[in-house]
Amino acid sequence: MERNAGKPDRFPAQGVPVITGINRIGLWSLYIKEVRRFLKVQTQTVWAPAVTTLLFLVIFTVALGRGGREVLGVQFASFVAPGLIAMAMMQNGFANSSFSLLSGKIQGTIIDLLMPPLSEGELMAGIVAAAMTRAVLVGCTVAIAMSLYPGVSLAMAEPWAVLWFALMGAAMLSLLGLVASIWAEKFDHNAAVTNFVIAPLSMLSGTFYVIDNLGGVFQMISRLNPFFYVISGFRYGFLGRSDIGDSNAVMIAAAGLLGFNLLLAAIAYRLLKSGWKIRS
């Protein structure tokens, strides 16, 4: 005991945090872990969605784009391509984040995420950032493939809108996926959200049409769909026009999506903080 007199303790007192501020190493490690997880099966997580989305383009342009049909003043193929890119990004962002916690709960490895010295915000940030990375990779892959398709032009009229709405859409679905994985107790629950919520909202978001062609009630319903603003805003970045409205309406939609994502982030954070359906 005398040899330790006057020397500082090697370990802090119980309850005193060792890591203060942001745990950058832990956050980066979680992010890399999640990215490596989907890259290990990139044929399924990146290339397969790109092929499926390209098939959508082929089918719809052959079925609806004949005779030089134009929508919003451009060829139908150039109109539908940005919407398909955004839809693929959102669906894959949801798929990635919704699997993270759910697989851990089912396989009993959730402790690997809860035990490291990561705060709820860092846990959320790592999972969402990895899901957004997958969404961006899928979007870039789809865009490259579509740019080679006859009749498709992906020249950007408003690059800021392409970047902003792509990130907002990826973040929105990544956060929704995280909330879904917290709620779900088995893969069937997650599949139900995908099939009965995400897929219908994606298809009914103006990807293949302009909502001005819809009746009053259905047009109002479409304008309540946040997916519509992501896809139409993303399309505005390429075409310089959209069915949201003029440039001021697009700016309002951009701000609205930011607010909606902040709300989703707050909900996801509170659920993680409470430990609901995670800690038993």
Largest sheet: 2 strands, antiparallel
Individual helix count: 10
Number of domains: 1
- Across the major sheet, the strand order is 1-2
* Uncertain runs: none
Estimated helix fraction:
55-70%
Residue-averaged pLDDT: 88
Radius of gyration: 22 Å
User: What is the helix/strand order?
Assistant: HHEEHHHHHHHH
3D shape: elongated
Distance between the termini: 41 Å
Percent strand equals: under 5%
Number of strands: 2
Label the structural class: mainly alpha
Keywords:
single chain, mainly alpha, two-stranded antiparallel ribbon, elongated, 280 residues, 2 strands
Characterization of this structure:
By secondary structure, this protein is mainly α. The protein has one domain (22-274). It is built from ten helices and two strands, in the order H-H-E-E-H-H-H-H-H-H-H-H. It has a two-stranded antiparallel sheet. The protein is elongated and about 75 Å long.
Task: Produce the secondary structure layout.
Elements: H1 24-39, H2 42-64, E1 70-71, E2 74-75, H3 76-107, H4 111-114, H5 120-147, H6 159-183, H7 187-203, H8 216-223, H9 226-239, H10 247-274
Antiparallel strand pairs: 1-2
In short:
The protein is mainly alpha-helical and 280 residues long. It has helices spanning 24-39, 42-64, 76-107, 111-114, 120-147, 159-183, 187-203, 216-223, 226-239, 247-274, and strands spanning 70-71, 74-75. The protein is built from ten helices and two strands, in the order ααββαααααααα.
